[in-house]
Amino acid sequence: MATEIRFGTDGWRARIAEDFTFENVARCSQGLADRLKAEGIAAKGLVVGYDTRFLSREFAERVAMVMAGNGIKAYLSEKAAPTPVVSFNVLHHQAAGAAIITASHNPANWNGFKFKPEYAGSATQEVTDQLELAIAESGPVQQIPLTRASDEGLIVEFDPDPPYMERMSKLIDLPAIRSAGLRVTVDSMFGAGAGYIARLIAGGSTTVEEINGYRNPAFPGMEQPEPIAHNLTTLIERIKAGGASVGLALDGDADRVGVVDEHGRFVTTLEVFSLLALYLLENKGEKGALVKGVTSSSMLNRLGERFGVDVHEMKVGFKYIGPRMSEVDALMGGEESGGFAFRGHIPERDGVLSGLYILEYMAKTGSTPSQLVQHLLDQVGSHYYKRRDVSFDPQDRTRIEELQRGIGDGGLTEVAGLHVRQTDEIDGRRLVFDDAWLIIRFSGTEPLLRLYAEAGKPELVEALLDGAGMVGASRGRAVRMLHYIGDSIWNYGGDD
User: What pLDDT, on the 0 to 100 scale, is given for residue 389?
Assistant: First the structure.
């Protein structure tokens, strides 16, 4: 029986050699080729990129071979490159889209297949629904050997960097960063973003030290190449010991960024999103709506009120955020994961560009990261945030979903001594309190139940996440749901 291929929050992802096989990648590619031909855009060709994971280059070659077998020209990246770099080349080549072999931040034994349509952003739900159907209904795979396809001009290797680097030079005041005398430490997390920030800002008084800047598909020393605090211990220790001005981290395909301040404190992704928005609105004097995933900070709503711009809340994932950005010509969009997009670029996350904006903010103001965070909090008040990831057996998902439905509509009235003011289901279940919120939702890429909380005090954040022991007058499914979560947290041992 053929593997059912489903596209989640951002692409199809699966464990290598289990479901992520050459056969299934070829099936994906054939379905995509069929879809491009049905839409009448196959003649534009397809950009094909890949990250530094195990066999990513070989999987990408298979994609290109299938495109060639269908008479579709494939622009094959000559090297591993960040997802936003490959995506930008869709515009540069005026292609029909891009297929990118990457599992982004997933653990080392995963890989994935992302499709970026001709607008160079994440595929919408409508597009992925159509692609899933095309894959399911595709006939025998048509492919041409790599050498033959190259000889016939159906596969063309290219350097993805020059057009992207040129765009960065137009969006960012690189000379200002180079002359600012910053000491920047970059953790590339063994991923596709290695070397990009250093190359862009080299040549002045600012210096860049890069760690984990080489390919290692095992991603040693971290659970997965996701730029969150517990995966950045080496970076944090290096900054504490070496006196760097700032630490920047990029995930496996460099569409996310993590920031560590000059004291070695991890700046939460919610703070980073708000810092970037504040910089664009206050210092650069730009205007435009902000588009955020529902798990992003309420600090953005405060900034929207202060600067008179709309704030749009969307389901998690750029398949929802990106289209809304284009629809309202948003200044910026982003999500809790550390992925941020900016007007004037592509409607897609870009960790390299996000890191450069942080450096530009520091260079233009002469401020340290901790000073910038304090400036932000002076305007929006104290906000503390934490996320926990709870593993579950995929077979339990239906049961958990049933329990989850009991949270809301009066099913849960109190958590951690706080009255539930309202609930919604924009994505998962969100409980809103006075000056605090809690969200329970499934990951779109892994078998994880994610818990998010934000409040004005750190102890209240912990209390909300420990909500299993904080239920007051509630009864029924909602209580059982929170107890399941609480037991799972303790069994998982996680605090991530």
Answer: 82
